[in-house]
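Help! Submission page says 'invalid entity' but I think these are all valid:
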Amino acid sequence: MGAMRLIARTASVLMIGFGLAGLSGCEQKSGTGTGTGTGAAAPAGNATKAPSETASSGGTKAPGGSEAPKTDSAAAAPAAEGSADDIVIGHYASITGSEATFGISTDQGIQMAVAERNKAGGVKGRQIRLITHDNQGKPQETQTVVTRLIEGDKVVAVLGEVASSRSLAGAPICQRKGIPMITPSSTNEDVTAVGDMISRVCFIDPFQGLVGAKFCAETMKFKKGAALYNRAQAYSSGLKTVFVDSFKKLGGEVVAEEAFSDGDNDFSAQLTAIRVKNPEFIYVPGYYTEVVNIARQARKLGITCPLVGGDGWDSEELKNAGDALNNCYFSNHYSHEDTRPEVQEFVKKYQDQYKKVPDGLAALGYDAARLLFDAMERSPSLGGKDLAGAINSTKNFAGVTGNITIDANRNPTKDAVILEIVNGALKYKATIKP
Amino acid sequence: MTQFLQTLFDGVTVGCLYALIALGYTMVYGILKFINFAHSDVFALGVWLSITIASWLGIGATGQPTPAWYMGLLVLMGAMVICGLVGFTIERVAYKPLRKAPRLNVLITAIGVSLLLQNLGQQKFTFGPYPKSFPTLMESSSLFSVSGVQVRLSDVAVIGTAVVLMAALQYLIYHTKLGSAMRAVSFNTRNASLMGINVDRVISFTFIVGTMLAAAAGFLYGLKYEGQAKQTADSMWVMLGLKAFVAAVVGGIGNVRGAVLGGLLIGLIEFFGVAYLSSQYRDAYVFAILILVLLLKPEGVLGKATVEKV
């Protein structure tokens, strides 16, 4: 056997193995995955101020110029250290990585809720302490940090993730350990199906897909659509399936369904295939970073039709698309233009603290944390079974994103809104009821 | 027909990028007989250096007017020089001490270097852990359009720059003294040193050239895609490097012309596969070709089979 042949073979096998290892996310930590401590034992006023304080003392510069939550417990102000009597809750989120604004916004929403609750006396007379761990947007890392929250930090409940594939990585651990988990914004149906410990405060994809389809077929009167989705993400492929089915049922025609994967950054082959079919819109149920790139490449190829998407688009980073996403639409959990007092009060408080308009993820993080505190207050104890029971029996909880009643499958039924991107700003377009 | 031509054009453009990266794999392999796993990270470094240098030069992201053409050249040169230095350092610090060690040791060291680069690249003091926008260096609208085929200026620049660089490399290897030294070292290291060739210098030089080509590929990648570049530890860089490596193997690892041919081949197969078969199996097409080549012609399309003397 030729030496070259042997070496080429060995090397290919090694390299592919290495690549796959990289894809499944088993690179080591980058050193940013430590906890956030939001003040609990601290005086109430101090606790409210804590996030902005830590941010200004050198927090990571987040995308879009806003300050990321501090994720380094060593550097956190001593005043923010908790006492043994605190109720500890955990949050796992993508504070860094391609979907960083998801984690950052959610964490800010949760921090706001924690600070408010502590100011008002906490839960059962005890203060609440939030510990946030960064999973870098990787499912593998998620399992590590969720285990760490439960085993190391001894949290009584877990909040997290935005991306469904990462919630699906964290949920089985919470279920096995008997720790209730509320996902603020994972919409894939399978997340709460993991077990009775897992619930959510957002609507689910079978509804969201229908909302998108109804909007395209009935509001926009589109007849011919195409879909471009990420086959590696449970959220994206699930939402696409529902959308395509619903759109067909409503009389529309789906002329092309093209897929991409997590590592892809070139969508031109798929977009070219879509372009020749001449659809009136393209449904892109993806996350904002890939949506930006898809939109820009689509416009470069001369595709002028609108793109339509789901709540994965919701990020201030969408502005990086420039004009490419002008007059495109996506379904979301709430609109900051909603005139309901709950919404306006939340938007104002958030803007005062973080100097930006809250996205849907911040609102859902805020709702999830408040719903958790409400359940804790009602629960006879903070043990996993009792607490999960209290969460699952939540009825008519008035949240920023609408009234939340947890049903038998631990999913709420809520309205969805359609937002239009007009010159970089999100404009309310329609509300679609279940 | 429109779809065919557009796919052909896009496939060739991406193939050029693969070819530039594959050249680095193949040159290092040709001389040191080991796969430089850190090469895909040097490519990612090239992308991020281009972003950083462009922002130093005040080339803004979306909204700013398009800068003069020589600004792009400046960014390209800057990225290539810095990456060349990084490549030189990597070789000196990580690989040179292992020159006499078994090849497996060097291979594992290369994985270590790769992880180091990935994680260093996304620290707060380097490029940060978030995706960033690549600044617009060139008018993104299409140059001209023939029966619906969009020919973008940026794509023409990608192909043009790649061709110029490959021609320069061809000249360097086959028409200069240093090039003959490289070929001699690749042929037989000990004999080359007996002929008075400074082997260490040739190896350093090879690394510098390989990493500079990767940096150029990184710059062209940014030029082509503009949009959001993902942080250095993202799996997309590994995947791109992997495909370029496959290109090097398919063309015949160690063979410079083979790397170019392999790059174009992989680019075209990937694009036509996605456009005409199914977009579900994008990466599978590339690796299926690898398996086929390893089964049918393990030395690669242009590679020469060597007989191992026992």
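Support: the input was valid. A stray whitespace character was the problem, and the output above is from the cleaned input. Residues 280 and 296 of chain A are 17 Å apart (CA to CA).
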